[in-house]
Every structure is written in structure tokens, then in C-alpha cells.
């Protein structure tokens, strides 16, 4: 498995956009349009946010993760954020997500940050069991309960 930047694989933009649109836009009732997701992923970088990483195996996309400057408007003091972690169902339980998260933490450290944040509405135990530190529970205009976690990038 190879972890690389989406910007190095523009042929994967539509595939990533479809995965993220179905999982994080349609499933959450967001009003974002598919074309907005494609535009977002077309504009990801390697040293400035947003950054998107891919897990690839012989050119096949296994999963993806992004780093956003902010993923929770009501908590703009927390920077940066792990976001849109997704592993294809047929690639789950193979360590793909863990590799993507590990590379994300390393990259955030390389960029000069000491901490990485994430938000979750329903997978708190997953992150807690992997060493993420609970920060707080908040609510915004769409969700009544959002758990915020952080991890040290050391």
C-alpha cells in the first residue's frame, strides 16, 4: 500500500469525490452539490490546506483522508483537522484507515503543528481506543452532539 497526495493523482479526483459525496454529503443531509465536492478536491495541495491523501494499491484506490484548516466553524481556534476519513468497504479491516491517519499525523507535524483535531458524531470510541484525547462535546446548527478529539503530533 502506498500513501500519496491526491494532487499527484488527478485521475482519482472523481472517484474520491463520489466516495466522499455519498458518505459525508448525502448521508448527512448536507445541501452541498456534487460539483462543489469535485471543485474542492481539484484544489487540494501538498503543503497548504486542504490536503487530501490517498491509500493506493497497484493504482487501485483503497481509501482517503483530508486535512482541513477548520472542520467546525464554532471552534476556529483548533487548527488543523483530520477530515473525511473513508475506506472502501472491501478494503476495511486491512489497516488502510490506520495508515492514512498515521501519515496524516506525520504530515501535520512536518507542517509545524503540534496537535491535530477531529470531529465525530458517532465514532468516538474508535478514536478514543486509538489514543485520541477527548476535548469537548459541542452542538452546531446541524448536530446536537459533536465530540471533538485531538492527538499530539510528536
Automatic annotation (TrEMBL):
Residues 3-154 form the N-acetyltransferase domain. CDD domains: NAT_SF. It holds the Pfam family Acetyltransf_1. InterPro entries: Acyl_CoA_acyltransferase, GNAT_dom, NAA80. It comes from the Bacteria. Gene3D superfamilies: 3.40.630.30. This is GNAT family N-acetyltransferase. It comes from Jeotgalibacillus haloalkalitolerans.
Amino acid at each position: 500500500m502506498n500513501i500519496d497526495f491526491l494532487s499527484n493523482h488527478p485521475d482519482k479526483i472523481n472517484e474520491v469525490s463520489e466516495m466522499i459525496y455519498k458518505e459525508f454529503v448525502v448521508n448527512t443531509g448536507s445541501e452541498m452539490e456534487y460539483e462543489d465536492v469535485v471543485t474542492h478536491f481539484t484544489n487540494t495541495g501538498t503543503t497548504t490546506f486542504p490536503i487530501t491523501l490517498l491509500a493506493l494499491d497497484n493504482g487501485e484506490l483503497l481509501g482517503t483522508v483530508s486535512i482541513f484548516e477548520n472542520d467546525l466553524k464554532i471552534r476556529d481556534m483548533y487548527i488543523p483537522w483530520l477530515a473525511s476519513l473513508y475506506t472502501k468497504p472491501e478494503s476495511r479491516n486491512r489497516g488502510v484507515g490506520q495508515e492514512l491517519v498515521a501519515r496524516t499525523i506525520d504530515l501535520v507535524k512536518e507542517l509545524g503543528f503540534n496537535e491535530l483535531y477531529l470531529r465525530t458524531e458517532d465514532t468516538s470510541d474508535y478514536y478514543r481506543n486509538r489514543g485520541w484525547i477527548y476535548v469537548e462535546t459541542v452542538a452546531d446548527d446541524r448536530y446536537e452532539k459533536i465530540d471533538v478529539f485531538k492527538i499530539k503530533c510528536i
